[in-house]
Write a structure and sequence with these properties.
This protein has ten helices and eleven strands. By secondary structure, it is of the alpha+beta class. The protein folds into two domains: 147 residues, BsuBI/PstI restriction endonuclease, N-terminal domain (Arc Repressor Mutant, subunit A, Orthogonal Bundle), CATH 1.10.10.1820; 149 residues, BsuBI/PstI restriction endonuclease, C-terminal domain (Trna Endonuclease, Chain: A, domain 1, 3-Layer(aba) Sandwich), CATH 3.40.1350.80. A seven-stranded mixed sheet has the order 6-5-7-8-9-10-11. A two-stranded antiparallel ribbon has the order 1-2. The protein has a two-stranded antiparallel sheet with strand order 3-4. Helix 2 packs across helix 3 and helix 5 runs antiparallel to helix 6. The N and C termini lie far apart (60 Å). The relative contact order is 0.08.
């Protein structure tokens, strides 16, 4: 299908707004048009600012421009187009509820107000003048949005006193509890090697220290949510934070064993739950010879029977 005028115009706009070449494509153009609710028969002067999720953007492309995308393209839309529109300050992320967790299925996006005002002038004699003025403020505005996003993150204090920040949400809250409550009680003197983040897979990663323990991660393995090193006993604790996904079951135990097979430290497998109530949903799946910790009873540890308590096997 030949490009409509609006798609071609959107491609021109993306280029003039300074978007990288990787985002100057039909997918990105259609996302921009969806953010503006700019259907084929509407002019840029009639652009709007609805709240739009990723799937509705894909549906907009199908219904109004005949562009069909497979359901599994959703992550490509999010990671390779919409993420960059937000980073550039062109679109806002969850403006109706900034505290919404990063991985929430209710996530929505909206065209940024100054960007909307600018784009309404596209195709008019005032466009170039407005564009020049707009671009002068972009660096400052983008930095402002980045600062606001950073302030919404969850602060976590490490045993060294260093602070890291994780994306908001229940999953990150449990990771914070693991680092600040579980580690001091059961891994005294422990060192944080890795903490995942729903907004960034490699939220905190001391890659060099892990390499010294014999483990090199190539980026394809699915890391546990938290990795702690216990120098006194030369143990690596591999901890899964369970709020909506599964515990260390038999399959996950084997996966982690393969991923950390080269470790010269003993491996200890731990599943962390926010509460005993949540734990009960997964009891039948938890692997033997692993440990369970519940944030609502932080001074207790539950051992799933093996020949030793809180220690590596094999």
């Amino acid at each position: 299908m030949a490009k409509t005028n609006n798609i071609a115009d959107a491609l021109q706009v993306l280029g003039q707004l300074g978007m990288p070449r990787a985002q100057q494509n039909d997918r990105s153009a259609l996302c921009l048009l969806a953010l503006l609710n700019l259907t084929k028969r509407k002019s840029w002067a009639n652009a709007e600012n609805p709240l739009v999720g990723i799937t509705p953007m894909m549906e907009f492309a199908r219904d109004h421009y005949g562009k069909l995308y497979a359901p599994n393209s959703r992550e490509t839309f999010r990671r390779h187009t919409v993420h960059q529109l937000v980073a550039a300050g062109i679109a806002l992320y969850n403006p109706d509820n900034p505290a919404r967790p990063v991985n929430s299925p209710k996530a929505v996006y909206q065209i940024e107000p100054d960007t909307l005002a600018l784009l309404k002038s596209f195709g008019t004699a005032a466009w170039n003048q407005h564009l020049e003025k707009y671009l002068l403020t972009r660096k400052t505005l983008t930095a402002q949005y980045a600062k606001e996003r950073e302030l919404r993150k969850l602060p976590v204090t490490l045993s060294t006193g260093e602070k890291i920040r994780l994306s908001p949400g229940n999953h990150s809250a449990l990771i914070k509890a693991i680092i600040e409550e579980f580690a001091p009680r059961f891994v005294p003197g422990g060192v944080l090697i890795y903490a995942g983040d729903t907004g960034d897979k490699w939220g905190y990663f001391d890659k060099e220290r892990l390499a010294k323990l014999g483990v090199a991660i190539d980026g394809h393995g699915k890391m546990p949510d938290v990795v702690l090193y216990y120098p006194e006993r030369n143990w690596l604790l591999l901890i899964e934070s369970v709020t909506s996904h599964g515990p260390v079951d038999g399959k996950r135990h084997e996966e982690l064993g393969r991923l950390f097979a080269a470790s010269n430290a003993g491996l200890v497998y731990v599943t962390a739950f926010p509460s005993r109530e949540v734990m009960t949903r997964y009891l039948a799946r938890i692997a033997w010879e692993t440990e369970v910790w519940c944030a609502d009873a932080p001074s207790h540890l539950i051992h799933f029977n093996g020949e030793r308590f809180l220690g590596p096997y094999g």
